[in-house]
Each structure stands twice: as C-alpha cells, then as structure tokens.
C-alpha cells in the first residue's frame, strides 16, 4: 500500500536503497561469495554469446547489462527489443544463452521470443520480479528481483534491481570462469555504496522538484544526452519523462547530436547532460557546449569527482559501470515532478498498461 505517499511512483523511487540492500542479502553468502544456482552457472559458462531480450525500461536495463557482461567478464552480449527479435531474429552464435529481463514476467513480446527459443532448444534465464510468472515458468532458470510489488506504470525500482542483479550474475559468472576483472569487482560493496548514494539523492527531492519547475514547466520537448552507460541511462531517463509528463523526450548519444538532431535545439530547449565516466566526460561537456551555444538550457548531472562549478546535480562516486544505479534517481524524480506540475495521473499515464500482455 501507498502509506504516507500520495503516489506509488514516488514510494517506489524511495524504496530503491532498500532493494539494493535486499539483493545483497539474498545473493551473497557471509564469506562474500555469490549465491547462484550451479545449474544456471553451468549453462551460462558454456555459452559463447549472450542475448538479452526485453521491452521498454527492461530493455534499457539490458543495455547496461551488456556493458557489465562485456567489460567485466569478456563475454560478447547483444541486447534486443523483444518485438523486433520476434519477427526479425539476428544470426545466432553456436552456443547462445538467452536472458529475458521482465519486471512482470508477462510481457507478450518477450514471451513470444522465449517460446521460439524453447523450440530451438537453447537455455534461458528469466530475471523477473514476479515468482511463478509466465516467463519464469517457461524459461530454464529464474532469478528474482526481490523489489517488492511495483504498482506504478512507470518502472523505477525494477530497473535498478535488474541492473544490480545483472552485476551480481556477472560476478558469479566471472568467479565460475576465473575471470580476473570480475573476481576483483566487489559487487556487494559497490551495491552497498549505491544504496547509500541513492539515499542521498532521494533525500534531495525538494531541490529536484524546483529544477523540474525551472527546466520543464512549459516545454514541449526535451533531451537527455550522454556517452557509454550514460547514453544507456539517457534512453531510460527519456522514456520515464515522456511516459508520465507527455513531454516529447529523446535520449541521445551526445556525439551523435551534430549529425542531425542538433537542428531541434532552440532558445530554451531543455537538455540534460549525464556525466559519470571519466573517459568520456570531456567529450560530453564539449557536446553540451555546442547545444548551449544554440540556446539550450542545460542541466548537468555529474559524478562528484567529475563535477565542475555550476553543475546542478552531483552524484555520489561509485564505479562508472554501475553509475546508472545512481544517475537514474534524479531523472526518475524529474519525471515524477514534471508530471505532478502538469497535473497528470502519474501512476496511470494515458494509453499505458502496467503489463503489456498483447503483442
Ligand atoms: O514487465 P516488463 O519489464 O516486461 O515490461 C516491459 C515494459 O512494458 C515496461 O518496462 C514499460 O516500458 C514501462 N512502462 C516503463 O516505465
């Protein structure tokens, strides 16, 4: 139940630090090793390529998962929109392993792909928040998100739980395959840092409410920009804002703007620049300058060690690969307040259903 909260979306945003702690409890042993079924690790270890299949926000969590699997565990990983894969599957590798990311476990587009994967006879894993859901029952393996019921149509805590669980799975896989980088990556410690960082951010609601008012009150469109995982995050942030505030929003790779989209920048266009990766920070800042020169109103969201004077939202420092876990929080709050300020039903946006059980 909502308790003291006016809306589920805000409650679910606030629950995220607790979900991170719960995942650490559920998936780590006392001695720091990961608690994941050996049969799952055996199947995963035999794969030569991972295929993550999902829709909407879960697809965006998959984009971050790809970075984790490839950077920490050297396993090639593709991420596919379920409705595209269903009718236009890519060429598969010899030993594919499929990961279905789905909060509800009932999304028809994803289920359609899983049915096909089962016909082909390939192993699969469903990562879901709902035990015994259809995709959980039909996949070879299941991992649960332990995020508690997500009621608001706009997915928030499921996104962060999915990324955290992908990181845990990468860790277990890396240990099983003896991969140095994954073994060194202290996921439990990072997720505890993430939980604390998320708490700092949800405690800054008043500030973000004011920024939403200043930046988004009357605009018809907005952009999120970033590179690497910040680009993945930009796509999720854009979906969140558009689905609850009806502001037309795009998430863009910041270096790609100049290839066309920059034509849309006018005096006062809101652009949110996400900067969490030291390798790409200077490049994103220079893209932000290009839009500022064309009149954009830029909000900078930057990690503490990359922040410069004038940046409005400062993120706690955590490993750049896991930064979407914290950078998403202010973008969820911006979406929530933009919807509130426009007087919309934030928990039940128009034209949308919580779980999309039709193709
Ligand atoms: O239950 P699922 O994770 O499979 O749902 C996928 C999408 O329908 C869902 O993430 C949708 O995009 C949300 N409304 C996003 O907030």
TrEMBL record:
What name is this protein filed under?
Glutamine--fructose-6-phosphate aminotransferase [isomerizing]
Q: Which UniProt keywords apply?
A: Aminotransferase, Cytoplasm, Glutamine amidotransferase, Repeat, Transferase
One molecular function GO term is: glutamine-fructose-6-phosphate transaminase (isomerizing) activity
Q: Where in the cell is it found?
A: Cytoplasm
Role: Catalyzes the first step in hexosamine metabolism, converting fructose-6P into glucosamine-6P using glutamine as a nitrogen source.
Taxonomically, which superkingdom?
Bacteria
Q: Which sites are catalytic?
A: 354 (for fru-6p isomerization activity)
Q: Where this protein primarily resides, as one coarse class? A: cytoplasm
The record's subunit annotation is: Homodimer.
Q: Which residues of the full protein are shown?
A: 247 to 605 of 605
Instruction: Look up keyword Endoplasmic reticulum and say if it applies.
Output: no
What enzyme category does the UniProt record give?
Answer: transferase
* Protein EC: 2.6.1.16
Q: Which reaction does it catalyse?
A: D-fructose 6-phosphate + L-glutamine = D-glucosamine 6-phosphate + L-glutamate
**Could you say which residues form the signal peptide?**
none
A GO CC term assigned to this protein in UniProt: cytosol
Q: Name one GO biological process term.
A: carbohydrate metabolic process
Domain (SIS) spans: 40-178, 211-349
């Amino acid at each position: 139940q909502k308790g003291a909260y006016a809306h589920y979306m805000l409650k679910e945003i606030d629950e995220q630090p607790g979900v991170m702690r719960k995942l650490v409890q559920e998936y780590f042993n006392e001695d720091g090793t990961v608690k994941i079924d050996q049969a799952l690790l055996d199947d995963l270890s035999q794969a030569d390529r991972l295929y993550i299949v999902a829709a909407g926000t879960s697809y965006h969590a998959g984009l971050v998962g790809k970075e984790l699997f490839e950077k920490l565990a050297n396993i090639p990983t593709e991420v596919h929109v379920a409705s595209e894969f269903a009718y236009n599957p890519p060429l598969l590798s010899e030993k594919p392993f499929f990961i279905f990311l789905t909060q509800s476990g009932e999304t028809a587009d994803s289920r359609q792909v899983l049915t096909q994967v089962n016909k082909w006879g390939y192993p699969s894993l469903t990562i879901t928040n709902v035990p015994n859901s259809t995709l959980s029952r039909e996949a070879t393996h299941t991992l649960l998100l332990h995020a508690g019921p997500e009621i608001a149509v706009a997915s928030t805590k499921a996104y962060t739980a999915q990324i955290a669980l992908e990181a845990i799975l990468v860790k277990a896989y890396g240990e099983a395959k003896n991969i140095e980088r994954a073994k060194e990556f202290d996921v439990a410690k990072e997720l505890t840092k993430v939980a604390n960082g998320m708490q700092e951010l949800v405690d800054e609601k008043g500030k973000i409410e004011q920024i939403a008012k200043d930046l988004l009150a009357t605009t018809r469109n907005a952009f999120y920009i970033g590179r690497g995982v910040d680009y993945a995050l930009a796509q999720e942030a854009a979906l969140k804002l558009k689905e609850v505030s009806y502001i037309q929003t795009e998430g863009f790779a910041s270096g790609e703007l100049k290839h066309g989209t920059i034509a849309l920048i006018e005096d006062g266009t809101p652009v949110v620049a996400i900067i969490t990766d030291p390798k790409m920070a200077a490049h994103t800042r220079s893209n932000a300058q290009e839009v500022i020169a064309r009149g954009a109103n830029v909000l900078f969201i930057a990690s503490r060690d990359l922040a410069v004077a004038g940046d409005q939202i400062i993120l706690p420092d955590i490993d750049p690969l896991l930064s979407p876990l914290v950078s998403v929080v202010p973008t969820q709050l911006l979406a929530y307040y933009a919807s509130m300020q426009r007087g919309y039903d934030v928990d039940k946006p128009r034209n949308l259903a919580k779980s999309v059980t039709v193709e």
